[in-house]
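Thread: quick sanity check before group meeting

JM: Hey all, I'm pulling together slides for Thursday and realized we never actually wrote out the predicted structure for the chain we discussed last week. Dropping the sequence here so it's in one place. If anyone has concerns about the input, flag it before I start.
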Amino acid sequence: MGMDTGMDKKPPTKHRPVRTAVMMLGVALAAPLVAAQSTEKSVEPKQSIAVVPRITITETWTDNVRLNRTGQSELITEVSPGIHVDLNKARAKGSLDYAISGIAYANSTAANRHANALSSTLQFEAIDDTLFLDVAGSIAQQAISAFGSQSVDNTSINANRTEVSTYRVSPSLQGHLSDVATYSARYSHSTTSSGTAAASDNAANELSLDFKGDIGAKRLSWRADIKNQDVHYNTGRTVEYGTALLGLAFAITQRFNVSAQTGIESNNFTTPNRESSAVNGAGLAWKPMESTKLLAVLLHHSYGDTYKLDFDHRTARTVWHYSDTKQVTPTPGAGSRGTAYDLYFSQFATTEPDPIARAQLVNAYLQTYGISPGAIVNTGFAASSMGLEHRQQLSLALLGVRDTITLFAEQSESNRLDTLTTAIDDFTASPTIRQQALSGNFSHRLTPDYSLGLLISQITTTGTTSTQSTTLRAAKLSLTGKIGKKATATFGLRRVDSENSVNPYSESAVTASLNLQL
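JM (edit): ok, ran it. Output follows.
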């Protein structure tokens, strides 16, 4: 994988009509989510199907459209028709948000293009409490190389940017084994297209079987988990791994329990064939009150420890979330937050557990404060091999009557785990890649229909050498207001500074957009 070499994107393939059909099927089915209420319990929304078409027109003037030292001014027109679907039926629940953007340049007409953005999930209950089907899809922009030129939106002409699409289908079966135990069986198939010849596509299959039951007075319970997964990279090799674990959990109180597990696992991360080794671990779950919960799980493997720590807390006016995870992943470095919509949907999960109600709240919140649902929070970078990733995230939302403050901090360390792969990516030049991201968003309601917003962010990426470093700082001031009942207009000023050993740049831009709900 190159840095910012302008490596050729993959040529259009004959499969695009199939991809479009899949996206439109997803629209008909449904997709993801969004933002905040202060009530302790959510009310189940009425069964419904809500379809909201929209169109957004944005004009951008920038003094550096190609993101280089010299700078080239440009006027850019972006037209983005889209649709949002919320589905809440007895057997089907989900939501979808899809938009296709046509981007036209006044001077650099050869760079005219289109971009897709999709976020969708569907949960379908085929047989009552027995057979289920989950379908999900996403399309988002991502950096090809962590050390190449980074950009804050779709309109810049940046060879280090690609469109990544991921689709997943997952049927599952659950039931009871007499009065002894419950079981759950799930199969999952997912495909990821990197959209560029500089990174690998991959396809993954996973099969899992879970059994659990109670012992005695139900304070002691047992669980058996069996899982097997294979991931095929079209520019690398196929990686396989599986685990078989047996665990016990003890409820010390109704709100606090501890657990332990042991078993075996096998993988071919560092060998041509699968090799087996022991795995063991422990965990705890604590929920002192409805608004606070803590979950921690630690597993020891032959290649190192993996763990997950999640803490959530909310008050009438605040939402707190902290997570610390270290896990094996087929896509190390992938942006975990994706778009602004994904960030707020995840951030307010404890405030509004119901995904349909949360999606409606988030969309209303983003529209009120002039935040684009598809705005990239952190694009991450493309990788072509299995990795071990350690990621820490801290987010805080302060929800006032007229003011809202959202703070987000993240740091990650990604390492290549598959030492036998022949794939070329950022890990070929740097075995360890570290990223730090900070962002703060302040929004103030000037009137019931107008608001002022300020977004400040910084993303720093470093490798193992001094030349493998890039820092992107951005600030955007925006004024948003309603025009009639269905239209919202936004005027914004943007400043971006990028420190990069190969291609440093700075950019100033003015944007104006009109969003019409049809």
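AS: nice. Helices lie at 16-29, 340-347, 355-368, 426-429. Confidence is low (pLDDT under 50) at residues 1-43.
JM: adding both to the slides.
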